[in-house]
């Protein structure tokens, strides 16, 4: 799973530096859909794999959601976590209980909230007689929120000297090439390059990833048809009831265009790169291609512009 892979990759770099000590993982957007579906489970898996290896963790779920409401959401998610199949139920309950005790929710809204989080982490580390190895911030928030959060982290939530900072940013960011460049510049003023990890996530990826294998498995039947002589255009409609929040259009955006034309290009599968004539174009609301994807105030990015 993507989230696990990212966290494990981050820890891989910790291990390379032989850093041991306390690691705080701050999940921004901890009550959101992506966090509920994937990220908390990813963090739990990380805990299962890494806790025995010397790192000491705390997990801080954060969002704009009010404290009590957020705590309720996170408590429910933590309750629903699952263990690998080979873990016995009793042991699983024990592990979940441990993980729940290391995890907490807090509202993170103002710069003061970030400063308070920083103080609490320092207090926790001191109280437990540990030393702080580093902090990881995972941005599971819409791209328009990145800059403000980055500013607050830089000004008020950096770990002290000797400890590292890592931020995980989900692409795409910005709504076109220019705004993506602007955002990259902004982020670059708050974080050093080695502190930033950019990952590509879009819902629909799993389904989309099956398109090529599907074609391959049906080569005999489809080869004569799946080409520019017979396909006028390809439309990808993802039937989702959750709000797009500026994130999901990336799936269409990504799929429809050649990789090189995208600001987050190289991660896009080149499914439609050459043999397909007319990928799904930007469409206004009401078009089946836009469907639930259209977010008011935003529009599709058209790299041809
Ligand atoms: C972190 O250290 C404290 C104090 O030694 C301990 O109680 C806690 O279980 C540790 N957590 C992990 C994840 O190892
Ligand atoms: C980042 O934080 C440092 C230390 O507080 C500060 O000197 C610097 O101006 C900040 N960067 C920006 C772009 O605000």
UniProtKB/TrEMBL annotation:
<dbReference type="GO" id="GO:0006006">
    <property type="term" value="P:glucose metabolic process"/>
</dbReference>
<dbReference type="GO" id="GO:0050661">
    <property type="term" value="F:NADP binding"/>
</dbReference>
<keyword id="KW-0119">Carbohydrate metabolism</keyword>
<dbReference type="InterPro" id="IPR036291">
    <property type="entry name" value="NAD(P)-bd_dom_sf"/>
</dbReference>
<keyword id="KW-0313">Glucose metabolism</keyword>
<dbReference type="InterPro" id="IPR001282">
    <property type="entry name" value="G6P_DH"/>
</dbReference>
<dbReference type="Pfam" id="PF00479">
    <property type="entry name" value="G6PD_N"/>
</dbReference>
<keyword id="KW-0732">Signal</keyword>
<keyword id="KW-0521">NADP</keyword>
<dbReference type="GO" id="GO:0009051">
    <property type="term" value="P:pentose-phosphate shunt, oxidative branch"/>
</dbReference>
<comment type="pathway">
    <text>Carbohydrate degradation; pentose phosphate pathway.</text>
</comment>
<feature type="domain" description="Glucose-6-phosphate dehydrogenase NAD-binding">
    <location>
        <begin position="26"/>
        <end position="208"/>
    </location>
</feature>
<dbReference type="GO" id="GO:0004345">
    <property type="term" value="F:glucose-6-phosphate dehydrogenase activity"/>
</dbReference>
<dbReference type="InterPro" id="IPR022674">
    <property type="entry name" value="G6P_DH_NAD-bd"/>
</dbReference>
<feature type="signal peptide">
    <location>
        <begin position="1"/>
        <end position="16"/>
    </location>
</feature>
<dbReference type="InterPro" id="IPR019796">
    <property type="entry name" value="G6P_DH_AS"/>
</dbReference>
<dbReference type="GO" id="GO:0005783">
    <property type="term" value="C:endoplasmic reticulum"/>
</dbReference>
<protein>
    <submittedName>
        <fullName>Hexose-6-phosphate dehydrogenase/glucose 1-dehydrogenase</fullName>
    </submittedName>
</protein>
<keyword id="KW-0560">Oxidoreductase</keyword>
């Amino acid at each position: 799973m993507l989230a696990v892979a990212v966290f494990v990759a981050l820890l891989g770099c910790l291990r390379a530096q032989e850093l041991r000590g306390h690691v705080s993982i701050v999940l921004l957007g901890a009550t959101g859909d992506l966090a509920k579906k994937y990220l908390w489970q990813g963090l739990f898996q990380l805990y299962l794999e890494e806790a025995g290896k010397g790192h000491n963790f705390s997990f801080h779920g954060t969002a704009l959601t009010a404290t009590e409401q957020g705590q309720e959401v996170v408590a429910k998610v933590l309750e629903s976590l699952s263990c690998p199949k080979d873990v016995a139920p009793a042991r699983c309950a024990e592990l979940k209980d441990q993980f729940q005790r290391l995890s907490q929710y807090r509202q993170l809204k103002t710069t003061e909230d970030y400063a308070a989080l920083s103080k609490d982490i320092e207090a926790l580390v001191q109280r437990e007689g540990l030393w702080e190895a580093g902090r990881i911030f995972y941005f599971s928030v819409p791209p328009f929120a990145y800059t403000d959060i980055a500013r607050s982290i830089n000004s008020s939530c950096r770990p002290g000297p000797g400890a590292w900072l890592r931020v995980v940013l989900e692409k795409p960011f910005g709504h076109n090439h220019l705004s993506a460049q602007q955002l990259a510049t902004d982020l670059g003023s708050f974080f050093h390059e080695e502190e930033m990890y950019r990952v590509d996530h879009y819902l629909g990826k799993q389904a989309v990833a099956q398109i090529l294998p599907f074609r391959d498995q049906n080569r005999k039947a489809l080869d004569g048809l799946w080409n520019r002589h017979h396909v006028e255009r390809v439309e990808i409609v993802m039937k989702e009831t959750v709000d797009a929040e500026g994130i999901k259009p990336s799936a269409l955006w990504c799929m429809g265009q050649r990789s090189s034309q995208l600001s987050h290009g190289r991660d896009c599968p080149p499914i439609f790169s050459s043999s397909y004539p007319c990928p799904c174009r930007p469409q206004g609301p009401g078009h089946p291609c836009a469907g639930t994807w259209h977010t008011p105030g935003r529009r599709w990015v058209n790299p041809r512009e």
